[in-house]
Amino acid sequence: MTDYSEILKQERNADWRVELRNSLANKERVALERVKMTEAEPLERIKSQTCEVNRGLTADEARREASRCMDCVTPTCIEGCPVSINIPKFVKYIEGGKFLEAAATLKEFSALPAVCGRVCPQEKQCEAKCFYTQKMKKDAVAIGYLERFAADFERNSGKIQVPKVEKRNRVKVAAIGSGPSSLSFAGDMIKFGYDVTVFEALHEIGGVLKYGIPEFRLPNAIVDFELENLRQMGVNFEKNFVVGRTASFEDLKELGYQAFFIGSGAGLPNFMNIPGENLNGVMSSNEYLTRVNLMYANQSDSDTPVLRGKCVAVVGGGNTAMDAVRTSKRLGAERSIIIYRRSREEMPARLEEIKHAEEEGIEFMNLANPIEYLANKEGRVSKVRLQRMKLGEPDASGRRKPVVIEGDIVEIDVDLAIVAIGVSPNPLIPACLKGLKMSKYGTIEVNEQTMQSSIPEIFAGGDIVRGGATVILAMGDGRKAAGSMHDFLKKKYNL
């Protein structure tokens, strides 16, 4: 087995890395301030659903930020990356002005570098493990910004590099769902030489990247570019194909598919089961965001326009809640409110998304929890009744548990309420597979080291396993599953 740490050591000792490291004293590197990315002005960006907030780095800004990297002997930043990107290598390529080489390095490990550079919670992952964060208590190297820069530079240069793939071995494998876990899986399996097909139930490829994340955070054109790269590598995509309905697993086996990766996600919205939740004007974040992002129901000529509100309340504190409340502001809401039962510090959303929301005039009503929705004469939601909360002892997640303040109840006027309190796994695929071991939460049980299910030829990852995950964690599952499936098939077919 290849010793990855030894490879990292050898690469670090390459002449060009040593020369670059010696070109600037550590004292000078440490003195450099973290770059601040240019952003679209709040009053301008809230006028458009497609105006990307973050504008990216210039070449000079990227090289200066990359110069902060100490090129550590033990690169702990890699430990924080779920897909194990060789972070120092691509960062040092940027410092040296070799931007296409940086992009090529990213593609060795990630099928979606331009996506991850935009939506990954780096502050909780690679940047949390950065030398600056761990040892110096300073701002980490802006790894996410640099990842985005390298991917964007390659795309804009027109010099697109297609990763090397092994000679086809004629073994067919299928990925079910086209979200980040499946795309990551497909990218690695095609590199191994397999014939890979991704089956998607919807009319567009991309899964949650398309229907769940607004374009002001992740433009569809970026996702489409990453998908085209996979197509160029040889991945096949089938749209409007519901595995288990359009064709069964047995049908696919008869067509020659030898193994399957299930990345069908968690698209079943959770509700609170409180009075009034069935009123007109109360909807899930899944429906709201999908209708806007994928079906363009926000456009004036839509046959089925999305509900709009002047006073919009979004229940939840994660990235999905932030996406929904910021979308409502762009659709003309005069007042957009986040209602969350914990404090600001406990909110799971990315810090950057919270910052952007504040800049855009989003109100935060923390330590409050809906207990009832009230209707007007037409049967549409008009008020939400809130129970005030306080924080008690930490719960199983490590966050302080919200506790009811008895008798402290308030009402606020709303004409649209969006529930963003999480999702449950898609039940369709598991229902089609006898013998597939499931958890009590409806997730597929897998070996955490291999992502292999109770059915040997079936692997799974992403939300269908985790119940809820970030893009990058789902991608990590896909990569892990690809490596394990490769080992499984090599033994089975003597590849």
What does this structure look like?
The protein is α/β, with parallel strands linked by helices and 495 residues long. The protein folds into three domains: 4-157, Alpha-helical ferredoxin (Fumarate Reductase Iron-sulfur Protein, Chain B, domain 2, Orthogonal Bundle), CATH 1.10.1060.10; 172-267 and 425-493, 3-Layer(bba) Sandwich (FAD/NAD(P)-binding domain), CATH 3.50.50; 269-422, FAD/NAD(P)-binding domain (3-Layer(bba) Sandwich). 37% of the residues lie in helices and 17% in strands. It has 21 helices and 15 strands. The strands form four sheets. A five-stranded parallel beta sheet has the order 3-2-1-4-15. Strands 6-13-7-8-9 form a five-stranded parallel beta sheet. The mean pLDDT is 95.
Q: Helix tally?
A: 21
* Residue fraction in strands: 15-25%
Output the CATH class name of the largest domain.
Alpha Beta
Domains counted in the coordinates: how many? 3
Q: Give the termini separation.
A: 17 Å
Total strand segments? 15
The coarse silhouette is globular
Backbone structural class:
alpha/beta
What fold name goes in the CATH topology slot of the largest domain? Answer: FAD/NAD(P)-binding domain
Strand arrangement, major sheet: 3-2-1-4-15
